[in-house]
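Question: does this match?
>
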Amino acid sequence: MPRAEVGTPKYLANKMKSKGLQRLRWYCQVCEKQCRDENGFKCHAASESHLRQMLVVGEHAGKHIANFSAEFQSTFVKLLSRRFGTNRVRANTVYQEYIADKEHLHMNSTRWVTLTEFVKHLGRSGVARVDETEKGLYIAWIDNSPKALAKAEANMKKERLTTSDEQRERQLIADQIERAKAEVPEAGPSSVPAEGLKRDETSEKVVLSFTPKLVAPSSESSSGGLKLNPLKPSINPLKANPLKRPNPLKAAAPAANGTSHNDKKRSAPSMTAAERLIVEEQERKRRKMEREVLA
């Protein structure tokens, strides 16, 4: 049955029926004809026009398949680079956009049977980076153009220039340490002595004391100087108290004996600071008892 002429109702009906994507296995790339069902593809394969085309292709089958494969890869990579750039994207998403064009080159005419094989081929050839996850294969286009390479080199130069002097010095020190380790032969674990804190039993123990040393004011050092008592107060608060009432018994006692308490203290031999504090404490207790008796 001949084809319907352009503009006829039969031609328009066929165009309306062929809208959208059809089955890939019912497409003939040699004749560039899409069949709607299995029976239609069987009838097309048995037609005279198809057999003539197959005879022409059969003479150089490898050449035609290589041309179809190169064209398919070129078109697919061009879509990947222009639509997604160097971004990471699912391979199936790119393929769905590629086959959205009804006049595209179908994969059944190439040497790749599935999309997975084609994507792995792109990864092996260095056209794209491929990684496989639980959600499927992901690809990212690798820009190897001279302009991109020059831009990457310029970015590396800029990064090297912006590196601080401190980082360069650290890197230099690290390199020197690595070179020194490489030059020095490795020593065994027995050659390194075990260092640690050791105590000499024969040495004398050192005792630290933070208590102040009491020295008598009249004692002289071996160098001939005088040592001052740091605990001796400059002013006695008991004697400097203007509100203190005189004790009549204490004042009468010196008059009877003929000597006062201060005269006894002056006539007494020089005492140490500790002895003087003990005497003052006893005197204070005695005055307290006298006040209680008078009260």
